[in-house]
């Protein structure tokens, strides 16, 4: 929440100083504060970093951002002036109550209905796995649809469905069934982003867009790292979390659509933010590939502390390898 408020405050002040509208600056801050749950989780899982400290902090931040989307939607009419402050506060309070109620109901279902449903699907799909796959996908899509209809985010509902399944004994089996079609959904997600891009505008303003993407990545990494560091985490963890959250999330497209419909932003600013968001998502794989080099550089410059456990493991491996070589040499000499 501190990160979201910092972006809103800084962008609002910057817009005012540059002669722009403060409300547009605050909206840009809202947009920048969002990161991509779908993209970041995919790369954290591929690199087996989901259980690492920086992975846990990153996932926690992403979940909170998804929870805050409903509140941010309620904030947009206040910024555009289409609703009064009292009405906006009432709308945000309503969203918060709906969120708490929704999560409470899901918590109860995860202990009662979900285990029974999954066991039923297991018994019905004893001969084939396709039925269980369809049932698992339908289960996640159902809760994503419910959260969307309640004014919450799609991602929050789908994430909550995954958490509900993870509390059962069939979590690993369900993950094995879903994994083959996970890449299909990821491809559809990226394809839908590509369909939103205005290629003509992108080509004519490629220099501005590239500069905006570099600025967004740099500023987001710095601010998120500062916030994480403020809560007592190490320099390494803070920087890794900052780099992981340096893109603009896919929910920015929904926020942009909503802001455009209520005339909060118009014209070229809408296209610029749309292109910047899409390009920042495209650069996320490059950022994750840079993480090992950044960590190595940080250790060399003594910004990060050396992981003694890893060093100990490497030393043990070296001792084992050396011992094997000595035994082989001795054995070879005896044989000769």
Explain the overall architecture.
This protein is mainly alpha-helical and 336 residues long. It has 3 domains: 1-80 and 197-305, Na+/H+ antiporter like fold, CATH 1.20.1530; 86-196, no CATH class; 308-335. Helix content is 82%, strand content 0%. The chain contains 16 helices and no strands. The chain has helices at 2-17, 22-33, 37-46, 53-80, 85-111, 113-124, 130-149, 154-166, 171-195, 199-204, 206-230, 235-244, 251-261, 267-282, 284-300, 308-335. α4 packs antiparallel against α5 (85-111) and α13 runs antiparallel to α14. The model is unreliable at 308-330 (pLDDT under 50). Residues 3-289 form the Cation/H+ exchanger transmembrane domain. This is Cation/H+ exchanger transmembrane domain-containing protein. Pfam families: Na_H_Exchanger.
Topology diagram in text:
Elements: H1 2-17, H2 22-33, H3 37-46, H4 53-80, H5 85-111, H6 113-124, H7 130-149, H8 154-166, H9 171-195, H10 199-204, H11 206-230, H12 235-244, H13 251-261, H14 267-282, H15 284-300, H16 308-335
Helix pairs in contact: 1-2, 2-4, 3-4, 4-5, 4-12, 4-13, 5-8, 6-7, 7-8, 11-12, 11-14, 12-15, 13-14
Function: May function as sodium-coupled metabolite transporter across the chloroplast envelope.
Protein name: Cation/H+ exchanger transmembrane domain-containing protein
Keywords: Antiport, Ion transport, Membrane, Signal, Transmembrane, Transmembrane helix, Transport
């Amino acid at each position: 929440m501190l990160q979201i408020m910092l972006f809103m405050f800084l962008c609002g002040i910057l817009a005012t100083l540059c002669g722009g509208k403060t409300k547009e600056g605050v909206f840009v801050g809202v947009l920048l504060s969002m990161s991509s749950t779908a993209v970041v989780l995919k790369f954290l899982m591929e690199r087996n970093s989901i259980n690492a400290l920086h992975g846990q902090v990153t996932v926690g931040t992403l979940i909170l951002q998804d929870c805050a989307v409903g509140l941010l939607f309620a904030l947009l009419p206040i910024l555009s002036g289409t609703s009064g402050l009292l009405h906006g506060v009432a709308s945000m309070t309503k969203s918060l109550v709906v969120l708490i109620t929704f999560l409470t109901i899901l918590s109860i279902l995860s202990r009662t209905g979900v285990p029974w449903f999954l066991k039923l699907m297991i018994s019905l799909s004893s001969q084939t796995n396709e039925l269980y796959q369809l049932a698992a996908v339908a289960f996640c899509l159902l809760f994503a649809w419910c959260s969307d209809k309640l004014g919450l985010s799609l991602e929050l509902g789908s994430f909550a469905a995954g958490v509900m399944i993870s509390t059962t004994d069939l979590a690993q089996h369900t993950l094995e069934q879903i994994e083959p079609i996970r890449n299909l959904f990821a491809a559809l997600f990226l394809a839908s982003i590509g369909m939103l891009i205005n290629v003509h505008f992108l080509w004519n303003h490629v220099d501005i867009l590239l500069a905006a993407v570099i600025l967004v990545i740099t500023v987001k990494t710095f601010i998120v790292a500062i916030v994480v560091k403020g809560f007592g985490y190490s320099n390494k963890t803070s920087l890794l979390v900052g780099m992981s959250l340096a893109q603009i999330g896919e929910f920015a497209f929904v926020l942009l659509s909503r802001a455009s419909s209520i005339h909060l932003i118009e014209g070229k600013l809408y296209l610029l933010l749309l292109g910047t968001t899409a390009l920042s998502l495209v650069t996320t794989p490059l950022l994750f590939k840079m993480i090992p080099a950044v960590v190595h550089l940080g250790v060399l410059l003594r910004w990060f502390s050396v992981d003694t456990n890893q060093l100990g493991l490497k030393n043990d491996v070296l001792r084992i390898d050396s011992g094997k070589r000595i035994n082989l040499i001795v054995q070879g000499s005896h044989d000769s």
